[in-house]
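Appendix B, record 7
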Amino acid sequence: MNLKEFFAELKRRKVYSVAVTYAVVGWLLIQVATQVFPPFEIPNWAERLVILAIIIGFPIALVMAWLFDFTRYGIIRTEDLSSEARIELPHLASSTFERGEGPRLLR
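Structure tokens (predicted):
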């Protein structure tokens, strides 16, 4: 696999969007923790714990984004790109509705 194919695979598996979303939400959580913890006299180690948890969670989120797709039908494993392994969502949608597992309407 060359570098161009690797970056195309990252894009197909939506790893870029997960990375950007995680970075923005992580930054927001760090800002909230550093502004809210001191007035409530929460110890400094709690701020450090929040920051370390966010930093450690970043590569875990990227690996999860590589392995799984989060769809409205649930969490499914991302298939390798080949002609036999392509998933068509309309087919998936019709099979879930046939089994009665589709979205439920509120009445």
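Remarks on this record: The chain is about 60% helix and 5% strand. The beta strands are 68-71, 74-77.
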